[in-house]
C-alpha cells in the first residue's frame, strides 16, 4: 500500500545532541511537510518542500533544518535539541495542483529529550 | 452534544447521540478546509473536506458546515460510536500554497 513512513516511531536523544528524524513516501507526492505537535496541542507547521524548493515558516527556530535528497525521502534535523523540543513530529505529503485533497500523514515520531 | 472548539476543548457524548464540533478559523482568504481525526499515538486522518464555494458537504455519518461570514466550521457526527473517540482538528488552506494550518483540537469522548 502506498503510504508515508516515519522512522523511528520513538526517539530518545540527549539534550544538545543532534538528532535526525526520517520520512519516506511511496505516493510520489511532490510536496512534503514537517509538523511539530506538542502534547494536547494542534500540529504546527515547521516547513515544507515543494519539489526541491524549501519553504520555512517564519517562526520556525533555526535549530530545525530539513533535507530532501529525492522525491521519496525527507529528513528533519534538530541541531541542538532542548527540553522544549520534546514532541511528536509528523511528516505529511500532498500532490499539488488539480487533485489536491489535503495531506497523507505518517504515524509520527515521538521525540524525548533527556 | 456541542463544543465551542477554542474554549471547550473536550466534548463527551453518549453513544448513539449526534456530536457537533466547532472551529473558528482565522484567515478570511482561506478557501479549503479539512477536518482531521487523530487517535492517540497516530497521525491525523482525513475525515471530510469542503471548499469555500460550498456551505455544506456530507459524507458517511459526517457533515461539515461552513459559514464564511463568521469564519466558522462545524463537524457533525451522526450516531456517534465509541470508535469516534479521538481529537478532531480543523485545518485551513489559504489557496496560495499547499500548506494547512491547524486549529485548536477538540477531544471527543463517547460514553458507551
Written overview of the protein:
The complex is a heterodimer of chains A (114) and B (112). Chain A is an all-beta fold. Chain A has strands at 4-7, 10-13, 19-25, 31-37, 44-50, 53-56, 64-67, 73-78, 87-94, 104-105, 109-113. The radius of gyration of chain A is 13 Å and the shape is globular. Chain B is mostly beta strands. Chain B is globular, with a radius of gyration of 13 Å. At the A-B interface, strand 4, strand 5, strand 9 and strand 10 of A face strand 4, strand 8 and strand 9 of B.
The main β sheet of chain B shows up as: 6 strands, mixed
Q: By helix and strand content of chain B, what is the structural category?
A: mainly beta
| Mean model confidence by pLDDT of chain A | 93
The most extensive interface between chains reads: A-B, 27 and 22 residues
Shape designation of chain B: globular
Q: End-to-end distance of chain A, in Å? A: 36 Å
Structural class of chain A: mainly beta
- Strand proportion of chain A, as a percent range, falls in over 45%
Q: Whole-number radius of gyration of chain B?
A: 13 Å
Please provide the ordered H/E string of secondary-structure elements of chain A: EEEEEEEEEEE
Average pLDDT over all residues of chain B: 89
Can you count the beta strands of chain A?
A: 11
Give a topology summary.
The complex is a heterodimer of chains A (114) and B (112).
Chain A: E1 4-7, E2 10-13, E3 19-25, E4 31-37, E5 44-50, E6 53-56, E7 64-67, E8 73-78, E9 87-94, E10 104-105, E11 109-113
Parallel strand pairs in A: 2-11
Antiparallel strand pairs in A: 1-3, 3-8, 4-5, 4-9, 5-6, 7-8, 9-10, 9-11
Chain B: E1 10-14, E2 19-24, E3 32-38, E4 45-51, E5 56-58, E6 62-67, E7 72-77, E8 86-93, E9 101-102, E10 106-111
Amino acid at each position: 500500500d502506498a503510504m508515508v513512513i516515519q522512522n523511528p516511531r520513538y526517539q530518545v536523544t540527549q539534550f544538545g545532541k543532534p538528532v535526525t528524524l526520517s520520512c519516506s513516501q511511496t505516493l510520489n507526492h511532490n510536496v512534503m511537510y514537517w509538523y511539530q505537535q506538542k502534547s494536547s496541542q494542534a500540529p504546527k507547521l515547521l516547513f515544507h518542500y515543494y519539489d526541491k524548493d524549501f519553504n520555512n515558516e517564519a517562526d520556525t527556530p533555526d535549530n530545525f533544518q530539513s533535507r530532501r535528497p529525492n522525491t521519496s525521502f525527507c529528513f528533519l534535523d534538530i541541531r541542538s535539541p532542548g527540553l522544549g523540543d520534546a514532541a511528536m513530529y509528523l511528516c505529511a505529503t500532498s500532490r499539488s495542483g488539480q487533485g489536491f485533497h489535503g495531506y497523507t500523514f505518517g504515524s509520527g515520531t515521538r521525540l524525548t529529550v533527556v | 452534544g456541542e463544543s465551542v472548539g477554542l474554549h471547550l476543548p473536550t466534548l463527551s457524548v453518549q453513544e448513539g447521540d449526534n456530536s457537533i464540533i466547532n472551529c473558528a478559523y482565522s484567515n478570511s482568504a482561506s478557501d479549503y478546509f479539512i477536518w482531521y481525526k487523530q487517535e492517540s499515538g497516530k497521525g491525523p486522518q482525513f475525515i471530510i473536506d469542503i471548499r469555500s464555494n460550498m456551505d455544506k458537504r456530507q459524507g458517511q455519518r459526517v457533515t461539515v458546515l461552513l459559514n464564511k461570514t463568521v469564519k466558522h466550521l462545524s463537524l457533525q457526527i451522526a450516531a456517534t460510536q465509541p470508535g469516534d473517540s479521538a481529537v478532531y482538528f480543523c485545518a485551513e488552506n489559504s489557496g496560495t500554497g499547499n500548506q494547512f494550518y491547524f486549529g485548536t483540537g477538540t477531544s471527543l469522548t463517547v460514553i458507551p
